[in-house]
Design goal:
Layout lengths: L4 H34 L3 H11 L3 H4 L1 H13 L1 H10 L1 H21 L6 H28 L20 H25 L5 H32 L8 H22 L6 H22 L2 E3 L10 E2 H4 L3 H28 L8
Antiparallel strand pairs: 1-2
């Protein structure tokens, strides 16, 4: 089966946008999930909130852009995933909304601060867990009718041992990145930073174990007959993930360098996303054996080359602007925070 250059380009561009979200919003979601375990008083909780305060909203742009690009370039894939995972997506949106409100109100509304802190944690946990569950489903396969509509049990039908493992892997990766970010932003020598160092190591070890379990589970039980057309790239991504995680662990164990372990953790996150892309290519959503309809793939979901060409031109203008915005914001708010 042959595909055009633009189809393949946009397949991987969408996964690149997802990788950008996984890295950037991943650390602030992870920081929110870990706040009850790392921050033991209001001063430390304030450091956690302030560390992501200037960047969290810009980080979510990558998720919105990925969704918009999927809708424009591969509308059937967008329709199947968003309608099939509707309840899960609404929970994710609910989490993102209450998280945003909690961030804004926690330092203004002193009387209800404990309440806003709880919402902040819940709003961070829901997306961090459910994104991985969704990814597990599109890889493992979902039942679809001839029109590509999900025919399984809403929400509960999407939770299986394999998809739950995928959700836990995503959560562990987010938490490892969040702990790494707090290490970067917390005052040197503070108890908060020391706890974050320990938590980063724990979450990285958990992520490596879950990755190994999911790889074995997926290969031998979930998709034993799936032959990746990009097998070489898949091996490169798998090895890169392992090397980056081990490097982050080894360098971070010394405790005197926070930026390199964070970069290595980010590289591992990107490798994990492209491992999924290379394993599934050219599919966006795999169909289970009992499905009436076929898998959603480049062959039956792609927009025309004219549309993809226009999108490429727009991306060449828009993406550099977004990157420039991120550079300005992260440079403006670089450095460690101090207790107030």
């Amino acid at each position: 089966m042959e595909f055009t250059v633009l189809q393949v380009l946009w397949y991987f561009l969408i996964f690149l946008l997802i990788a950008g979200y996984f890295v950037l919003d991943g650390f602030d979601l992870g920081a929110g999930v870990l706040m009850p375990f790392l921050a033991k008083n209001e001063e430390e909780r304030d450091i956690v909130r302030r560390s992501i305060g200037p960047v969290w909203d810009g980080n979510e742009v990558w998720l919105l852009t990925a969704g918009g690009a999927l809708f424009a370039a591969f509308a059937p894939a967008y329709a199947t995933t968003f309608s099939g995972f509707y309840l899960a997506i609404m929970l994710v949106l609910f989490g993102l909304i209450i998280r945003a409100v909690a961030i804004e109100y926690a330092h203004r509304d002193v009387k209800w601060r404990s309440f806003w802190n709880v919402l902040f944690v819940i709003g961070s946990l829901l997306p961090a867990l459910l994104f991985g569950v969704a990814v597990g489903n599109i890889y493992a396969g979902i039942p679809m009718d001839a029109g590509g509509n999900y025919t399984g049990v809403p929400l509960l039908g999407l939770v299986t041992p394999f998809t739950l493992l995928c959700g836990l892997l995503g959560l562990a990766m987010f938490c490892a990145a969040g702990a790494g970010w707090i290490c970067l932003k917390a005052p040197v020598g503070s108890d908060l930073r020391e706890r974050a160092l320990g938590m980063r190591r724990i979450m990285q070890v958990v992520a490596i174990v879950l990755f190994a379990a999911i790889s074995a589970f997926g290969h031998f039980l979930i998709q034993p007959d799936m032959v990746a057309s990009l097998g070489a790239l898949r091996w490169v991504c798998a090895i890169l993930f392992g090397v980056a995680m081990v490097a982050s662990l080894a360098i971070g164990a010394k405790g005197d360098n926070d930026i390199v372990p964070f970069i290595c953790q980010s590289v591992a996150a990107v490798a994990l996303v492209f491992l999924l892309a290379s394993s599934m290519f050219p599919n966006f959503v795999v169909a289970t054996p009992d499905s009436i309809g076929p898998a959603i793939s480049l062959a039956n979901a792609s927009a025309g080359d004219l549309t993809l060409a226009w999108m490429t031109g727009i991306a060449c203008i828009g993406v550099p602007l977004v990157l420039a915005y991120h550079v300005i914001v992260y440079r403006t708010f670089r450095g460690r925070l101090e207790f107030e």
